[in-house]
Amino acid sequence: MTPLSDDSEATDLRTADAVLAVIPASLLLAIVVAVALPFSWGTALAAGSVPATGSIGYALFYDPPTARE
After folding, report:
1. 16-62 pLDDT, tens per residue?
2. In 3-state terms, what secondary structure has residue 58?
3. Residue 50: its pLDDT value, please?
4. Please, what sign has the CA dihedral across residues 22, 28, 34, 36?
5. How many structural domains does the chain have?
6. Closest-CA residue to 49 (of 14, 17, 24)
7. Residue 29 belongs to what domain range?
8. How many angstroms separate the CA atoms of 55 and 44, rounded?
9. Torsion-angle region of residue 6: left (phi > 0), alpha (psi -120 to 50) or beta?
């Protein structure tokens, strides 16, 4: 793997990594909440899917990936 020479490429990489980390983190947090509090699994996972879906929407529509030249 070669080091990135342009700061914009490094920013894109960090944004993509953050989006990929938020998806399972929000669902894992929902599972922890379902175990710790008296919420049903379905309710907790539905609530956890909102930030996961929001991060996917952010990555696809607000800050979409661009082709490298």
Report:
1. 888 889 999 999 999 999 999 998 999 999 999 999 999 999 988 88
2. helix
3. 95
4. negative
5. 1
6. 24
7. 9-62
8. 18
9. beta
